[in-house]
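User: structure tokens for this one?
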Amino acid sequence: MAFNYNIYMKIWLDTDLGDDIDDTLVLKALLTNKDIEILGISTVFKNAPLRAKMAKYIVSLAKRNIPVYAGKSIPIKGITPVNPDEIFCQYGKEIGERDKETLKETSSDLASLSMIDALKDNKDAIILAIGPLTNIGKAILLDKENVLKNRTLFYMGGDYKRKHPEWNFECDIEAAKIVISSSLNKYAIGLEETEKTKLTSEEEKYLLSLGNDALSDYLKTTIHRFKKSTGWPITPHDFLALYGLEKVNELKWIKADINFVFQDTKPQHCFLEVKEGNQLNYLNSFDRTDFVKYLFDSLSK
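Assistant:
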């Protein structure tokens, strides 16, 4: 599947960083990649203002000047109950508390409108979405000039080979439906593939040995907070979306149409009915060894 982009890429990142560690890994890799320009960052889901402050803090550690916007904390329509004041597990006092500026942002559509403006001025820019799709869905609804038409979106969400619920979609079902039915050129990274990225204990140790600068040290701090809070292994789900973006022409993708099916016995869950079509391209498979090498190389910069 041919995909044309310059070696130098422009990206808008939409993220729910602060819970699982994978968003923080992606942001660190983007900030240290000289071949990628981050046009802007929007945060999404639950405490989006506090997530924005964390993103701004990480950007400051990288000594970069990148606009960060607090997007929507509440989904357009989701299944999972949402507490917009929830404090995520990677939170630390170094990022401060929610302030009036970010609270004002999240009560408006500023994040989605800023995304549209950035893409309007950068015709070759790509959206990388690694959280619930609320901000992307809102941007589509607000896009009166069709700026997003046929633009490229890489996202982590859905499960395309199993009748299995997936977090990002279930957090905002309506936004997922809006995105799937849109004219965006969509590349989907499904849960059935991202689960294969779970790191071994030896790989986790190696990850923690990388880098000795302020940004790398903060990444290690957030990893320790994540592990202490959850006890979970590191599974870099979202990093596979970045890998898919950079390796798009080397990977196998399947074209498909999607239908959302709700389970009668478990109405709080839904799964995807997948058939041959043209709505999106989903990742069929990847080489885990190559992925882990890419992960470590990206975080060693």
